[in-house]
Design a protein that fits this description.
Elements: E1 5-6, E2 10-11, H1 15-53, H2 63-72, E3 76-77, H3 83-88, E4 92-96, E5 99-104, H4 106-135, H5 139-152, H6 156-166, E6 168-177, H7 187-198, E7 204-209, E8 215-223, H8 227-243, E9 254-261, H9 267-283, E10 289-293, H10 296-314, E11 318-327, E12 332-344, E13 348-351, H11 352-355, H12 362-380, E14 389-392, H13 395-398, H14 401-414, E15 420-425, H15 426-431, H16 433-445, E16 449-455, H17 461-467, E17 470-475, H18 477-480, H19 487-503, E18 507-510, H20 515-523, E19 528-530, H21 541-544
Parallel strand pairs: 9-10, 12-14, 14-15, 15-16, 16-17, 17-18, 18-19
Antiparallel strand pairs: 1-2, 3-5, 4-5, 6-8, 6-9, 7-8, 11-12, 11-19, 12-13
Helix pairs in contact: 1-4, 5-6, 7-8, 12-14
């Protein structure tokens, strides 16, 4: 049984709530029984007084009057009472003249039975609602009340230890970087040794290099006040470890998401939070580390986030925008990228980048991409031939044969196969290169085009030549943002443009926002660009083409 705790007010949890409900139920039923017993005693006294006033002989014509008198006071003859009531009740002895009469109080109990049943039903409903309400109390409030109640009864030394323990949390970090590690390197061994040496003071220090190219690590126990400093140190240690392989690596190329949580937290939610933190860090040019706590409010919202977003999608509470891509040589719009915006009931209009990391179920990801593609094709078929639309689909759906068959059928049915392009992240292509060569070639043979986006480093030309289906490259936003202030990034752009010429494909920039960025990428040989400098995303396709 869990501890019953008293702080500023009494807080009962678990079995304590049930025990209190049972005690109250027993007390109320005891009070009802006392009330019923008092009624029987009172009625029996009045009936006995009436017997004393009657004649000692009762003639045959007064038998009915005698029976009526007995029933009037709530009693019945034992012979007229069912065996169940005789077993459940005790007969009352009356003295009439020299004769002892035993009468059952069953009629009184039958009159009181509805009241007893009503009170018991009322208590059951109240107990159920109370237990539900107690179960919905924020865990943080219960934990704080428990900590105050427990420490108030302990010795000063024990109190200090308890408070110290309550300040300890576990830290889970996820890091990703824009650099390819040497093929001969074992990342798991390399980072395990490095991190164990730098964070040896922690009782628990473990790390794992994921197949997706991310590094995750857990440190515990950590004082809450040290979490921010520790997150920055984790980022710096990994950055220094990567400098060994590329001395010109920038700190902005390494992004770190951190989640800290208390003992007993749901590990699936911890992973969701750290992915969200990493996504925020990756979307911010200047912020390389983002820290998020896993508390009751956040865990509750995470449990509801995926279902709420999918409910919005199914109910049609979304909009499809189109971001124009301008070709410098054509001096016109050459393509538009479809962008989904969901109307969330509490968070307003959300872009895909804000909620995609909250969706984990394969069927939900498939429904999302089917919705985007279906509406993009519906908009495209209304336009004259020559208008082109690009769609960014989730990498997991490209590994689903059922989805690819559905996609091929939809594109062929639309009759606009040559006007639809699919965008695929460069790192996802590298990771699934062999699969792309096998499966995506079939989609390309149907007439569709493939564009590699999020290009932020020099290309692996041999891999792209083997695939042979790439029709364009899109430079990453973090590479283009204020590129005129960074000689290092300008050098990377020149190298990518030169490699693209060898492949015979154009290079486009994403996220161009200023005149300085536009003039810089033009000088660097970029073939086109999209961003707010040219146009904001437009709701109608004909407005962007």
């Amino acid at each position: 049984m869990r501890r019953l705790i008293k702080a500023d007010k009494e807080v009962f949890t678990g079995w304590g709530v049930r025990a209190v409900i049972v005690v109250v139920w027993l007390l109320v039923n005891g009070a009802l029984w006392q009330f019923t017993h008092a009624q029987i005693v009172q009625q029996a006294g009045q009936l006995q007084s009436h017997f004393a006033q009657l004649d000692a002989t009762v003639s045959s014509d007064r038998v009915s009057e005698f029976s009526t008198l007995v029933h009037h006071y709530g009693f019945a003859d034992e012979g007229q009472t069912s065996s169940l009531w005789l077993w459940a009740t005790e007969s009352v002895k009356f003295q009439f003249a020299d004769t002892a009469l035993y009468l059952s109080p069953a009629p009184i109990l039958q009159d009181c039975l509805p009241v007893v049943l009503f009170m018991n039903c009322l208590m059951l409903v109240a107990g159920y609602l109370l237990s539900r309400w107690m179960g919905s109390l924020p865990r943080a409030e219960l934990s704080a009340a428990q900590a105050r109640a427990i420490t108030s009864e302990l010795s000063p030394d024990t109190q200090a230890n308890a408070v110290e323990a309550s300040r300890k949390v576990s830290v889970f970090a996820m890091l990703k970087w824009r650099q390819t590690l040497p093929e001969e390197l074992d990342p798991q061994s390399h980072f395990s040794v490095t991190l164990a040496r730098c964070f040896s003071k922690y009782e628990r220090c473990s790390c794992k290099y994921l197949s997706s190219g991310a590094l995750v690590m857990t440190l515990a126990p950590v004082d809450k006040v040290d979490v921010d400093a520790l997150a920055r140190r984790i980022h710096e240690v990994v950055y220094q470890a990567l400098l060994t392989f590329r001395p010109d690596l920038s700190r902005s190329a390494v992004k770190c998401g951190v989640c800290f949580y208390t003992k007993g937290a749901d590990q699936a939610m911890v992973y969701q939070v750290v992915r969200s933190a990493l996504s925020i860090a990756q979307s911010n040019v200047w912020q390389h580390v983002h820290v998020m706590p896993l508390n009751h409010t956040l865990s509750t919202s995470l449990r509801r986030a995926e279902s709420e977003i999918m409910d919005d999608i199914k109910a049609g509470r979304f909009m499809l925008f189109f971001q124009p891509l301008f070709g410098f040589a054509q001096q016109d719009v050459i393509q538009s990228e479809a962008l989904l915006r969901v109307r969330h009931r509490s968070l307003g209009l959300m872009s895909a980048g804000q909620f995609i990391h909250k969706i984990h179920r394969a069927e939900h990801l498939m429904l999302l991409d089917k919705t985007i593609l279906r509406h993009a094709l519906n908009a495209l078929v209304k336009e004259p031939a020559g208008f082109s639309v690009s769609v960014n689909l989730h990498v997991l759906n490209w590994s689903n044969v059922e989805f690819i068959d559905w996609l091929r059928e939809q594109v062929m049915t639309s009759g606009r196969t040559s006007d639809i392009a699919f965008e695929l992240a460069l790192q996802d292509f590298y990771q699934h290169e062999e699969y792309c060569c096998q499966v995506l070639t079939g989609v390309s043979e149907a007439g569709c085009r493939f564009v590699l986006d999020h290009v932020n480093a020099p290309l692996k030309l041999e891999a792209l030549r083997r695939f042979g289906q790439v029709t364009a490259l899109k430079l990453a936003f973090e590479l283009i943002h204020e590129v005129h202030h960074s000689a290092k990034r300008r050098s990377v752009v020149r190298q990518i443009v030169a490699q693209a010429k060898e492949l015979g494909v154009p290079v486009y920039a994403v996220g161009v926002e200023t005149k300085e960025e536009f003039e810089c990428i033009t000088k660097l040989g970029v073939d086109g660009a999209q961003g707010y400098y040219f146009s904001a995303p437009l709701l109608q396709l004909e407005q962007s083409l």
